[in-house]
Design a protein that fits this description.
12-stranded antiparallel barrel, Porin, mainly beta, 2 domains, 11% helix
């Protein structure tokens, strides 16, 4: 397994298998489950030879600048939407094609590589982008491979290869990529670390399907066994209710408070009302900062005092039509939900089931009706994607 390779942000480095699919026509990168992870603001470079890569929450990740230099093209990549050289992340240069017939070579240089005598990474493209291999520096160590219609297995940084893949498309003659091989697939293999918030006993090494009856506040297993339930279906006058397991043991206590324009939920251990037993809090992001038809929740663990970055985040589509739970600000999915009259939840392997159920017990009582026509194209598409995932799981 390769050491961690972080160029843009270590949050995008994941120690488990990830499948990416890049639509080279639209400039959109999808996860294996069909979720949009990254996209560019336009499909071709602007008159200023500039475009921006965003994540699915419209946060700018990198800005590409393309410039023709002598006989080889150059692309510079900056942090966020910056144009400042101090924010340069890396540059990509195309080597003269005379190195070998049918082979294109790209050299990748990090900003501290001033003399550029040796590349930090190199990309070998065979044919008209039929296949591609990414190497660490001038060594034979392979970081990632890509081939249309085939799967290659390797462990490496998600961001490095995602960014390089998109740059390959942008830097290597945009007009020729629209053909029958529109999609590129990359696969890495590894194992997810355990994510335990409430109790590690609720973490199992396989994915778990849970059905939540949102009217009764009861979570059932795939075999219809009751797993968890809340003592009442709505918050009490004290804005408090308790989640129990099937043996009537209190798992967590929810407290709901309205703070300015954001709802705040605090979740405490067991039946406690002592702030020292705080497990996590949930805050709704202001709707003005999110895409219309999408509600975003940030989840902060008790130890995250400054709350500058979330420990988990939830993206809710439409009026709770579907929802995806991510680890931190990364594209790492840990759970998904599709609303089919109740919440059909898929919890990923080694993720705390009780924690995920607690999150969706909060979602069920929220008002997420900030969309037009009670659904949008984006939320409809997302619902279909999640539905496919759950059926295949």
């Amino acid at each position: 397994m390769a050491d961690k390779v972080s160029v843009i942000n270590p949050f995008y480095c994941a120690p488990y298998s990830i499948t990416l699919q890049i639509n080279t026509e639209k400039g959109v990168t999808y996860s294996e489950n069909g979720d949009r992870l990254f996209y560019v603001d336009d499909t071709f470079f602007t008159l200023h030879n500039r475009r921006v890569l965003y994540d699915d929450t419209q946060k700018p990740i990198v800005t590409f600048y393309k410039k023709a230099v002598t006989l080889h093209e150059r692309c510079k990549v900056f942090k966020g939407e910056s144009t400042d050289l101090s924010q340069l992340l890396f540059s990509v240069k195309k080597i003269n094609k005379s190195i070998s017939p049918g082979i294109t070579k790209l050299n990748v240089f990090l900003p501290n590589n001033q003399d550029k005598k040796k590349s930090d990474f190199r990309v070998i493209i065979c044919g008209s982008k039929n296949s591609c291999t990414v190497y660490a520096g001038e060594s034979p160590n392979i970081l990632a491979k890509e081939k249309r219609g085939k799967k290659f297995r390797k462990s490496t940084s998600l961001v490095l290869y995602t960014t390089i893949s998109i740059i390959l498309y942008y830097i290597n003659d945009d007009s020729k990529v629209i053909d029958n091989g529109r999609f590129k697939k990359i696969v890495w293999v590894a194992k997810i670390d355990k994510i335990s918030v409430i109790n590690p006993l609720y973490c199992v090494p396989q994915s778990v399907s849970i059905q939540i009856n949102t009217e009764k506040g009861i979570a059932y297993s795939e075999k219809d066994d009751r797993l968890f339930y809340i003592d009442d279906t709505f918050f009490t006058l004290h804005d408090r209710h308790v989640l129990y397991d099937d043996s009537k043991k209190p798992i967590v206590t929810f407290y709901n408070k309205i703070m300015s324009l954001r709802e705040l939920f605090k979740v405490l251990k067991g039946g406690s009302n002592d702030s020292s037993d705080l497990l996590f809090s949930v805050k709704e992001v202001k709707k003005s900062s999110t895409i219309h038809g999408i509600t975003k929740l940030n989840v902060f663990l008790a130890g995250n005092k400054d709350e500058k970055k979330s420990d988990f985040r939830m993206i809710i589509y439409g009026n709770k039509h579907s929802c995806t739970v991510y680890a931190g600000e990364s594209p790492t999915v840990i759970a998904k939900m599709e609303n089919n009259g109740g919440f059909n939840v898929l919890v990923y392997p080694n993720v705390d089931n009780a924690f995920i159920v607690a999150l969706f017990m909060i979602v069920k009582d929220m008002d997420c009706s900030n969309e037009s026509n009670d659904s949008g194209q984006g939320s409809s598409t997302a619902t279909k994607m999640v539905s496919t995932t759950l059926l295949l799981a």
